[in-house]
Write a structure and sequence with these properties.
Blueprint (H helix, E strand, L loop, with lengths): L1 E5 L3 H12 L5 E6 L7 H4 L12 H20 L5 E10 L15 E4 L10 E10 L1 H14 L3 E4 L6 H4 L4 E4 L5 H4 L6 E10 L7 E4 L7 E7 L4 E6 L1 E2 L8 H14 L8 E11 L4 E6 L5 E6 L5 H22 L1
Parallel strand pairs: 1-2, 1-7, 2-6, 3-9, 7-15
Antiparallel strand pairs: 3-5, 4-5, 8-11, 8-12, 8-13, 9-10, 10-11, 14-15
């Protein structure tokens, strides 16, 4: 059975892989206006952390499954997937996070383990995913299964349903225009790539200031990502110098190493915000099935495998019924 996946970010690639792996005699093409390394996914920090994604009960399911896959990939030494410790600090002893059940290792931090000005926090084990090599891995895996990737912009999903009986819509923020889905909105994120610190622990303070600036430090193999912002409704992808200064100031509270690290690059991108993730199947023209898999906000990587597997299950079930 033939399928078209619209979108070539992390959601589109993982969905395409799971579709081809789900049964024999399956075909798949990815159609996308932009291909890696020019997708929103390429800009992501990206670590497993369920940030601004809803509803919580479904996010727990998708996030747990995705983290399981990341542990498997890390054990296989897949490029770009590493299991690392993360610490999130708080101005007062924090309650148990709502996503606690997803992670394998977790403990509360004592005040003496926190930077000055913080009274508590927790340490947990997570996956850090370096999007350049990871997206290249996904692309090669999709190609190896017989999938094809086309750089093609479409004006309507009917272009895809006219060619294939199964279509997966993984367009992220593109669904704002493609479907006129005005529940979608941009969440502008600004980050910097800096030199690699000595400590490879992920450090976070998720409290946003009045300008939606917060702090995280994500060490990777050869560099480190620091951020960031979460400005809803802002469509600008131009880095702002004033915001960069505030990010550096906030991150310096987490680690005294930050002021010493050379700044390599300033980047701004748009997360695909939505009130809830849209993951559902609907019947389209002439019996075709469209499965929507978008609106992951700041958790596209975090939910990628769980959502992809459910999307493929929805498509298979709907196809059998039709």
């Amino acid at each position: 059975m033939r399928a078209v996946i619209v979108g070539c970010g992390v959601s589109g690639l993982t969905t395409g892989i799971r579709w081809l792996e789900a049964g024999e005699e399956r075909e798949a093409e990815i159609w996308a206006r932009e291909l890696p390394p020019h997708t929103t996914s390429n800009i992501a920090a990206a670590l497993w952390f369920p940030y601004k994604a809803y509803p919580y009960e479904r996010v727990l399911e998708w996030g747990t499954r995705t983290l399981e896959v990341f542990y498997e990939l890390a054990a296989e030494h897949i490029a770009g997937v590493n299991i690392q410790d993360a610490k999130e600090f708080s101005s007062k002893p924090p309650p148990e996070p709502w996503w606690r059940s997803c992670v394998r290792q977790f403990r509360y931090l004592q005040p003496e383990e926190c930077p000055p000005g913080y009274k508590g926090g927790y340490l947990f084990e997570t996956a850090v995913v370096e999007m350049g090599p990871y997206l290249e891995y996904l692309r090669k895996r999709f190609d190896g299964l017989g999938g094809k990737i086309l750089e093609r912009e479409i004006a309507s999903l009917e272009e895809a349903t006219a060619w294939a009986p199964v279509v997966f819509n993984c367009t992220g923020l593109g669904s704002y225009t493609l479907l006129t889905d005005h529940e979608m909105f941009p969440i502008r994120g600004q980050i910097m790539r800096v030199g690699l610190p000595r400590d490879n622990t992920v450090l976070m303070d998720d409290r946003e200031d009045e300008d939606t600036v917060f702090a995280y430090i994500v060490p990777r193999s050869n560099d480190c990502v620091i951020g960031g912002t979460a400005r809803a409704g802002d469509w600008s992808t131009e880095p702002d110098a004033g915001t960069a200064i505030r990010i550096l100031e906030r991150c310096a509270r987490l680690s005294s190493e930050v002021p010493e690290l050379p700044v390599l690059e300033h980047i701004a991108g748009l997360r695909p915000g939505r009130s809830t993730v849209r993951l559902e199947a609907e019947q389209a023209r002439e019996g075709a099935v469209v499965v929507h898999n978008y609106g992951h906000s700041g958790a596209g990587v975090t939910l990628s495998w769980g959502c992809a597997e459910e999307a493929v299950g929805l498509a298979s079930g709907a196809s059998r019924r039709s």
